[in-house]
Write a structure and sequence with these properties.
Radius of gyration: 15 Å
Strand order of the largest sheet: 2-3-1-4-5-6
Largest sheet: 6 strands, mixed
Number of strands: 6
Bound molecules: guanosine-5'-triphosphate
Helix content: 25-40%
Length: about 170
């Protein structure tokens, strides 16, 4: 397939929030209840079409565990888009997104597009972060916010496509 554009995208967020699961759901249409923690990073690619443009997304899915923290700049460097993931049932993971945004604003490409994903929306009863708070924060930093579930598939295509659209529009 002929590709018009190629975009590097990175997933970032605390360990266990579902970064790999979102990427796997998006690229392979699969979900694994026992997804293992990522070491270093995973690379996945997907070809999509937005209007008349065919785009290859090169997705670097990073490891969220603290011991891999120092590797992150290698992956977000030159990325045009970042999917910042938190787990709606884990308050700390939301604050981790806030700290990633601060870091990306200082260290990443100045044109980088952000999308925030509040993942594990299938576990609504255990929610710790009010949706309104997350949406207000996203608005404040000029990012889009999506409620996602890698388990059910809710919001998954939408959040990745939004990143591609934002990059395309820059
Ligand atoms: P690290 O590789 O450690 O950074 O983790 P990660 O953010 O990539 O999380 P991962 O995709 O490995 O998922 C962690 C656990 O959460 C796994 O057991 C997944 O099956 C589970 N999980 C991921 N997404 C969802 C979701 O949307 N809903 C539910 N219920 N569980 C999920």
């Amino acid at each position: 397939m002929e590709v018009d554009r190629e975009f590097k995208i990175v997933t970032l967020g605390e360990g266990r929030v579902g970064k790999t699961s979102l990427a796997m759901r998006y690229v392979r249409g699969q979900f694994n209840e026992k997804e293992q923690s990522t070491t270093n990073a995973n690379f996945l690619e997907k070809n999509i079409r937005i209007n008349e443009t065919s785009i290859k997304l090169n997705i670097w899915d990073t490891a969220g565990q603290e011991r891999f923290r120092a590797l992150a700049p290698n992956y977000y460097r030159e990325a045009k888009g970042a999917l910042l993931v938190y787990d709606i049932t884990d308050k700390e993971s939301f604050w981790k997104v806030v700290s990633w945004v601060e870091e990306l604003k200082m260290q990443a490409d100045k044109d980088i597009s952000f999308v925030i994903a509040g993942n594990k929306c299938d576990l609504e009863l255990d929610r710790q972060i009010p949706k309104e708070q997350a949406i207000a924060y996203a608005k404040q930093i000029g990012a889009a916010h999506y409620s996602t579930s890698a388990k059910s598939g809710m919001g998954v295509n939408e959040c990745f496509e939004e990143i591609a659209k934002l990059i395309l529009d820059k």
